[in-house]
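quick one, 182 residues, struct below
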Amino acid sequence: MLTPEQEKLIIARAKTDPPAFGPLYEAHFNVVFGFIFKRLRDQEATAELTSMVFLKALHALPRYEWTGAPFSSWLISIALNETRLYFRRNKTDVTVPISETDVTQLREELNNDEDLEQSLARLADSLGRLESEEQELIELRFFEHYSFAQMGEILSISSDNAKTRTYRALARLRTLMLKAAQ
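---
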């Protein structure tokens, strides 16, 4: 794993010497591949999109501004855009598998203490009723475990805005779950 200082130096060098991008690729490949694979569940398509993410990152690197945020946040923002394009082109819905731990954390955030099985069904249905932007916020925060600062970098918004939008999405999710319970 590269330190922020190492990343900053490698990025500066890679801006004028593209082969110097290699260590960044090696350091972040698994994160980007995992992020995309979690959505696509297709190894071949994931490999193709992952390659596209790194190619676009390499081409855009001269315009990249170091902010102190992890470089992976910038790569994930590119990956998020690429997966959105993929789903638009293929006209399929995004499905992100979630673990029991993820659901438990989200249920705690929603102050939901009903039966787990009922809660899961209502949660899945309510998540599906959220706008895609709201789903992404919930997904990034509770299923991908990004900080608000990282979410801000990924979504090109401030960390405060990421936090505000996430809590609004949670409030909407809570409302949808209450309606579904009636």
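The chain has a mean pLDDT of 87.
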